[in-house]
Amino acid sequence: MRARLRLIAVRRMTAGGQLVISARRFRTQERNRQDACDRLIDLLRRAAEPGKHRMPTRPTAASRERRREAKLARGRTKRLRQPIARSVDT
Q1: Given pLDDT bands bounded at 50, 70 and 90, which one contains residue 8?
Q2: What pLDDT shows up at residue 90?
Q3: What residue ranges do the domains of the chain occupy?
Q4: Cβ-based neighbours of 59, under 8 Å, separated by 6 or more
Q5: CA dist., res. 69 & res. 83, Å (int)
Q6: Is 2 left (phi over 0), alpha (psi -120 to 50) or beta?
Q7: Cβ-proximal residues to 19 (8 Å cutoff; 6+ apart), any chain
Q8: Does 9 have pLDDT greater than 80?
Q9: Strand, helix or coil at 39?
């Protein structure tokens, strides 16, 4: 859970690993403290949830073909940019 919390709240963590939550949304200190506690609880709940596992997928045949065609087009462009080799027959 601690590792997931680090991933979720990476911008709120100090170099020492402390979590910093600033609350200045309300006019009173009490409401700001409650807001900070609520946000901390929300972060902890999100960190406690298991992450989604990615199902590995393969590229479609059409996407592989598009990739090949794009590579061929880039190669043709680069070949056209090269200087023309002249044969010296003298």
Answers
A1: confident
A2: 55
A3: 2-48
A4: 67
A5: 24
A6: alpha
A7: 5, 9, 12, 13, 40, 43
A8: yes
A9: helix
